[in-house]
């Protein structure tokens, strides 16, 4: 489970729209990776909309924002179109990257245990080091807090 000060695990994943994104290719820009459980659920929708709303400010700070879930690219396309999202949505269908980042966790809801993505965000600086980690993210105010951290780099 990578933490602050460590090198962020590199990856290449498919994104909405059909292209691929490689994390290391975005250097020297900082990158915000937000891992979310599932497209088109209430919390995930609010989070993606919040990051989209602040996308211009993240871009002005020189940062990229990437959302990652296990959903397929086709599902990401529908989610993006339905909510007019502007942030790239990456598909980690096998949860390999989720495991590398330590966000693939056993969860519990209504007494049932299952595996899923723990809502988490990683701020990666321009050299590929993890500058900040947010785990068990609560959506309200989160995108704004991440933007403050980006501006503080």
From TrEMBL:
One of its GO terms (molecular function) is thioredoxin peroxidase activity. Residues 2-153 form the Thioredoxin domain. The active site is at residue 44. Keywords: Antioxidant, Disulfide bond, Oxidoreductase, Peroxidase, Redox-active center. One of its GO terms (cellular component) is cytoplasm. Signal peptide: none annotated. One of its GO terms (biological process) is cellular response to oxidative stress. Belongs to the peroxiredoxin family. BCP/PrxQ subfamily. Monomer. This is thioredoxin-dependent peroxiredoxin. It comes from Roseovarius pacificus. The lineage of its organism: Bacteria, Pseudomonadati, Pseudomonadota, Alphaproteobacteria, Rhodobacterales.
């Amino acid at each position: 489970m990578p933490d602050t000060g460590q090198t962020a695990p590199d990856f290449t994943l498919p994104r909405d729209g059909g292209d691929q994104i490689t994390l290391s290719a975005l250097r020297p820009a900082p990158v915000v990776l937000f891992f979310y459980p599932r497209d088109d659920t209430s919390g995930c929708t609010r989070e993606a909309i919040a990051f989209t709303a602040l996308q211009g400010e993240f871009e002005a700070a020189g940062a990229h924002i990437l959302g990652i879930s296990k959903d397929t690219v086709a599902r990401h396309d529908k989610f993006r179109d339905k909510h007019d999202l502007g942030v790239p949505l990456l598909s980690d269908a096998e949860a390999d990257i989720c495991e590398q980042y330590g966000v693939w966790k056993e969860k519990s809801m209504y007494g049932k245990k299952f595996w899923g993505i723990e809502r988490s965000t990683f701020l990666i600086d321009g050299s590929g080091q993890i500058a900040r980690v947010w785990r068990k993210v609560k959506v309200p105010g989160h995108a704004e807090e991440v933007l403050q951290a980006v501006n503080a780099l």
